[in-house]
Amino acid sequence: MPTADEIFKDFREHSIAEFFKKNRQMLGYAGIVRSLVTVVHEYVTNSLDACEEAGILPDISVKVSQVEENRYRVTVRDNGPGIPKKYVGKALAMILSGTKFHRHLQQRGQQGIGAAGCTLFSQVTTGKPVHVRSYTSTAAFECDLSIDTLHNRPVVNNTIDIDRDGMGIIVEGEFVGVKYENSEHGVLEYIKRTALANPQAQISFTDPFGKEFVFIRSSEKTPERPKATKPHPLGLSVNDLLELAQTSESRKLSSFMLESLARTTPNKLNEIQKRCKVDLSKNPKELTWSEAEELVKAIQSIKWIAPDSASVIGIGADQIKIALKSILNPEFISVVERKPQVFKGGIPFMVEVGIAYGGNSGRRVEDVQMASIMRFANRVPLMFDSGSCAITEAVRDMQWKRYSLDIDTQPISIFINISSVYIPYAGVGKEAISQEEEIVDEIKLALMEAARSMQRYVRGRQLKSIEESRYKIVMRYTKQLATDLEELTSTDKKDIEERLEKLVAKHYPKLKQGAENPNEAENTSDSNSV
Ligand SMILES: Nc1ncnc2c1ncn2[C@@H]1O[C@H](COP(=O)(O)OP(=O)(O)O)[C@@H](O)[C@H]1O
Ligand SMILES: [Mg+2]
What we know:
disordered C terminus; globular
């Protein structure tokens, strides 16, 4: 039997890049169709974030071309601020680095894993680097990027200065173990949904068959920038508090709390001090786990003002309406934008729901019509792991029939966006939102509100279709009746038929009008509860 000393001769440390090289499914590289969507998702969300931060209306083009079976090239171009030469390696070829991780700000990316994950995926499946061209306001260059996975360090090669040509970045990589599929889980659907949740973006997509799809910008309004926020005391776990304290520059625990936590005033500190024995004048770096536990308990036992909801910004009811109309061309839309709420006592979030009926809404599976449920977190489409998601749970729990709606048979698209600085994802793949009670309840309330206004329309439609079939039946008899009456009264058949038709039509005035104006605007009504 080997001894501990012998066994531990083999002891090694590993870098985060080595870890993800072995566990790339954790980054969304699982399954050949999903892996391709993940690559597009990482680059497109980065482009949207970068444009948003720089106050630029995004113009993004995505191209996917097939190299051979299960091998594709992906090219994404944006018109954002670009990446300076000094940072390009770390930004796109070093895991856990970026401009977003350390901020308490509602953004799509956060961990600093996405782009470097793509570089890693390309390199381990093709042995090739990714190619980047970057155009900033002062310079332009191109280079090849890969990761030294042993040390999680960027490797930048073949850097050349190039002519400035607009702004933004063009990133291109090749990937093996991926497949383009035109399905509900494919790249085209991902891009369509991204366009729906980002009406300020113009996105064009060229598929592997050379077909180009352009999702035209439907709103010229740059989205409002959410404010960076401090964490609210009620949302803090013991570990959170300890980590914040340990990285604090303050010399006293009290000043750290005043500076780093939201809604914290000297009065609040007095209240906390009365309920726990922790010395608030000690150095925050010396806070122990048991002291942090005591503090969190005290924090939770006093009353706090709700967190500032300015940190949460949704898409906006009007913007959702514009996007749904432009992309789905439905007969009817109902959009609900709820006020921000909190979960876990102190984390603000906000729910927006849009229901579209008719036009290109819903989806068809082997000629069977059904509803399409589109889930979004901070405007990013969630395409996978729907089973475990709070949104799916809320949709499933709704008694749709009560609202005269049937999600198994009707052409309905249900759009649900959750906005928050801290979206509680159910897993590392960030494809499902965990089923926090407050979030599920809030989605249900929004769905009910939207469904109620949809019901009015669907009811009207059902009544109309009953009338329509009655009208058709009656009309079928007018011809025969006219022939019989001609014989009985010796009046011209045509004349009788015309008069009978007019008589019947008089009883169905709505049908006649509807037939003349099939796209009547009254069918598109809105419900905003703001
Ligand atoms: N298209 C882009 N334009 C400008 N900067 C970018 C772009 N893509 C990535 N970056 C920079 O690279 C960093 C790392 O990106 P990424 O690995 O996806 O992590 P995250 O998006 O979570 O921060 C970003 O934080 C950003 O600073
Ligand atoms: Mg990212």
